[in-house]
Amino acid sequence: MNDFERKLAQQPFRQPPPDLRAAILGPPSNVIEPVRWTWRDWFWPSPQVWGALAALWIVFAVLAMGDRPAATEHTAFAVPEPTQITLLTFHTAHNLTDVLEFSN
Amino acid sequence: MLPDLRQLYDDHARALFAFVLNLTRSDADARDVLQELFLKLTKQPQQLVEVREMRGYLIRLAHRLAIDAHRRRSSHAALVDRAATEPVALFAVASDPDRDAFRAALAAALADIPEDQRAVVHLKLWEQMTFAEIAEALDIPANTAASRYRYGLDKLQTLLRPLYEELR
């Protein structure tokens, strides 16, 4: 290497633009701190908590209704079966015919 | 083991940027080439595992990408005109005005020599690579690298002689 070559080699090229590193490699990764759980979180109103509470209430309500004794067991008069109703209607109609014939 | 890309950038980006900037004479192209190069490395980091001479390998990649960028630019007449008219700041700004003037003259002289000679001159002078290494990086025979260097340097000497003699 002669003097001229040495002279040229001593000339420093300029640096890449400062923003190029971030443009190529991306910004430095943000460290996400783990969220610290506190007892206050349980009591703080939030949709999840209130939703869970409502769901629990519905479950209890359904269970409470299921435990209630059936109303039919306590009624004084049992509801007649459809066949019984038909027979009853037939007898009534028959009796009514008899009464009408007698009156005539 | 895969190399750390951030470390790779810190170690080689300055040299790669200078080389590509000297070749393309365009700040935007130099940025694009470097971005593309590191994008390739990010997508296929395993290609670096077997690399023995990292600087040479990266320069080889950068050279290919710079040629592609140059072809794209050449097909765009307006961009070629812009590159020819806009002087690019190749060198760091010197505090001494004489040095600054020499650097400006050197940048202009480098622009005057053909691109293939400029690539060899750059790698020989500013990367201190041997002709064998340059030949491998640029995918040319070592003899061709040597002759390109000689032609390029002669032209630089002719262009810079008055200023160089003045500064001596």
Secondary structure elements and pairings:
The complex is a heterodimer of chains A (104) and B (168).
Chain A: H1 3-9, H2 18-25, H3 40-43, H4 47-67, H5 82-103
Chain B: H1 5-24, H2 27-43, H3 54-74, H4 77-85, H5 97-112, H6 115-126, H7 131-138, H8 142-167
Helix pairs in contact in B: 1-2, 1-3, 1-6, 2-3, 3-7, 5-8, 6-8, 7-8
What would you say this structure looks like, in words?
The complex is a heterodimer of chains A (104) and B (168). Chain A has 104 residues and is an all-alpha fold. In chain A, 60% of the residues lie in helices and 0% in strands. The longest helix of chain A has 22 residues, at 82-103. Chain B has helices at 5-24, 27-43, 54-74, 77-85, 97-112, 115-126, 131-138, 142-167. The radius of gyration of chain B is 17 Å and the shape is globular. The mean pLDDT of chain B is 87. The interface between A and B is medium-sized, with 18 and 34 residues.
